[in-house]
């Protein structure tokens, strides 16, 4: 059984929220624009769970037509420790992997849904790319490569939005072949 923190983070809707907020502060309204398939009551329920769990925080409150609009941000990039994953069984890990792959597919579907029917889809011109390669790495080489990728990703995440920049989701997955 995963820890409460793992159970909090490893939920399909909450993973979408965390991903959307990974590089920026957002209101519930902005999140609902990014995740239009999530009902607003469901979105608020998951925002509250992340808020109570200490994964996100309210960084600003703005008066809007007689109510208060909250601006949320991640407390820190959420990560799971070995202790958080301790006690997970094969089915728990399979559920986590299925959720990750489902999240990838949801992102691809959202990209495709923004294309009108009959429109020419050009993955490469639009900036869609994915590769698969087998690598032979020692554990040290693997960890060094993973740190390099993370360092590049964190540096790019600091880019502020601008008209020249397109919002992109970066995902990667390492799967051990011979364990």
Primary descriptors:
179 residues; mainly alpha; Arc Repressor Mutant, subunit A; 3-stranded antiparallel sheet; 8 helices; 3 strands
Give the arrangement of secondary structure elements.
Blueprint: H1 4-9, H2 12-20, E1 26-27, H3 28-34, H4 40-52, E2 56-64, E3 67-74, H5 82-85, H6 90-113, H7 123-126, H8 139-157
Antiparallel strand pairs: 1-3, 2-3
Which word captures the global form? globular
Under CATH at level 1, the class of the domain at 4-121 stands as Mainly Alpha
What strand order characterises the main sheet?
1-3-2
What radius of gyration results from the CA coordinates? 18 Å
Task: Give structural notes.
The chain has 179 residues and is mainly alpha-helical. It has a domain at 4-121: Arc Repressor Mutant, subunit A (Orthogonal Bundle), CATH 1.10.10. 48% of the residues lie in helices and 11% in strands. It has eight helices and three strands, in the order H-H-E-H-H-E-E-H-H-H-H. The chain has helices at residues 4-9, 12-20, 28-34, 40-52, 82-85, 90-113, 123-126, 139-157, and strands spanning 26-27, 56-64, 67-74. Strands 1-3-2 form a three-stranded antiparallel beta sheet. A hairpin with a 2-residue loop joins strand 2 and strand 3. The longest helix is centred in the middle third of the chain and has 24 residues, at 90-113. The two termini are 23 Å apart. The mean pLDDT is 86.
